[in-house]
Amino acid sequence: MVFEIDDVIPFSRRHPNESIRLITRYDSGYLKDLFKKDDRVCFSEECMKELCRLTKDHKDNWEPPTAKNLGIFASLKPYGTPYLYNLNDITIIEENAKRLEKSI
After folding, report:
1. Which of 14, 43, 18, 42 is nearest to 29 (CA)?
2. 97 is in which domain, residue-wise?
């Protein structure tokens, strides 16, 4: 499926009924993960440009706890935690272009 920036991803479990633009603001890492795991996800050329613009300079700002006596799992980032990701990643852009060619 080719998505535009204001489309809702119908099979999104973590962000149901939220547009791609809204998800990008606080959980762009989810879009990256969904894109890599699900071949149905494909962004239009305009959408990909907008995603790159919106996520420029995004970075994951999670820091592990500083306490020394924590268990092994306490120092890991919890699954499902929203995180920012810069979608100006050449591998994602190239894969999206390949998916766009297949869908046309």
Report:
1. 14
2. 2-103
CA–CA separation, 21 and 3 (whole Å): 11
Positions in the chain whose pLDDT score sits under 70: 59-81
Cβ burial 36-64 (10 Å sphere, 16+ → b, else e): eeeeebbbbeebbebbbebbeebeeeeee
pTM here is 0.78
**Contact yes or no for 92/35 (Cβ under 8 A):** yes
Q: Structurally, how many domains does the chain consist of?
A: 1
- Could you report the per-residue pLDDT of 5-24, keeping only the tens digit for each? 999 999 999 999 999 999 99
Residues 6+ positions from 104 with CB-CB distance below 8 Å = none
